[in-house]
Amino acid sequence: MILIASSNGAVGMEAGWAILQAGGSALDAVEAATRPVEANPDDHSVGYGGYPNVLGEVELDASIMDGTTLQAGAVGALRGFRHPISVARQVLEELPHVMLVGDGAAGFAAELGMQPENLLTPPAEAAWRAGLDGRLPEEFRHAQGQIMERMLARATRLATDPERVAGTVNFIAQDAAGRPASAVSTSGWAWKYPGRLGDSPIIGAGNYADDRYGAAACTGWGELAIRAGTARSVVMYLQHGYALEDACRAAFHDLGALGLPPEHCLMSMVALDRHGQHCAISTIPGRTYVYQSSGMAAPAELPRLIVPVTGS
């Protein structure tokens, strides 16, 4: 058994590991592990307290995948519900769809009996106001201080904060039966255009699991992972016989084909192969990840391998 996560997933490791130790499924474990992160108001990249879009609205994305059945569920641009991972899980379980977004996702959450709430905490709101004040000229505001809706695209380009791109939480688990599952949850890019989806809810981009080969989950600039199909690429390289670290490196190498300067390719990844070997890489120095496996009394935190993106 093993559970791995991005470093901000440390607060959820106990909940996820308890399920694995009790003989529960990897799918249950990654959902349970994600929920404490979504409820953590001090994590501004996920769930309650996450940074809002350019209008000050918190929009959440999440996905979950069962590596044994290849079933998946995802939600995007979900407002008013702090646990998008559990809504995504119920999409997987209850609907013939893979993804719901916006009002459809919120309506489904309400149908499940989940209670809506305001997800914008005072610290996140203060950061949003400070971020806009520091980037937008006065022409973008009217008397109430709201951004003019007809100018949202330009306002988003000016306000989007490159220092707040690389949030998100990832979990990958393999249970006692060898079944893998993966989960990703995020509030997305700070001050984003309303309705923007990154890679987190996109199966194959930010999240993928297949018990024949392995699993991978991403954080960082989600648009890049969408364009390159990064999580699925790792699993594909494993399918073609690559060792786990080599598969991760190859997927990062593919980002070079996108034609961006290397310093703009902000990306991190956790991955697991079918043998339970784990790996975490990043283009960003200083990033870590956490894991716990059979025989360990507590999770351990390790540095990620630094893998720069170069042109292909």
UniProtKB/TrEMBL annotation:
<feature type="binding site">
    <location>
        <begin position="196"/>
        <end position="199"/>
    </location>
    <ligand>
        <name>substrate</name>
    </ligand>
</feature>
<dbReference type="GO" id="GO:0016811">
    <property type="term" value="F:hydrolase activity, acting on carbon-nitrogen (but not peptide) bonds, in linear amides"/>
</dbReference>
<feature type="active site" description="Nucleophile">
    <location>
        <position position="168"/>
    </location>
</feature>
<dbReference type="InterPro" id="IPR029055">
    <property type="entry name" value="Ntn_hydrolases_N"/>
</dbReference>
<dbReference type="GO" id="GO:0005737">
    <property type="term" value="C:cytoplasm"/>
</dbReference>
<protein>
    <submittedName>
        <fullName>Asparaginase</fullName>
    </submittedName>
</protein>
<feature type="site" description="Cleavage; by autolysis">
    <location>
        <begin position="167"/>
        <end position="168"/>
    </location>
</feature>
<feature type="binding site">
    <location>
        <begin position="219"/>
        <end position="222"/>
    </location>
    <ligand>
        <name>substrate</name>
    </ligand>
</feature>
<dbReference type="InterPro" id="IPR000246">
    <property type="entry name" value="Peptidase_T2"/>
</dbReference>
<dbReference type="Pfam" id="PF01112">
    <property type="entry name" value="Asparaginase_2"/>
</dbReference>
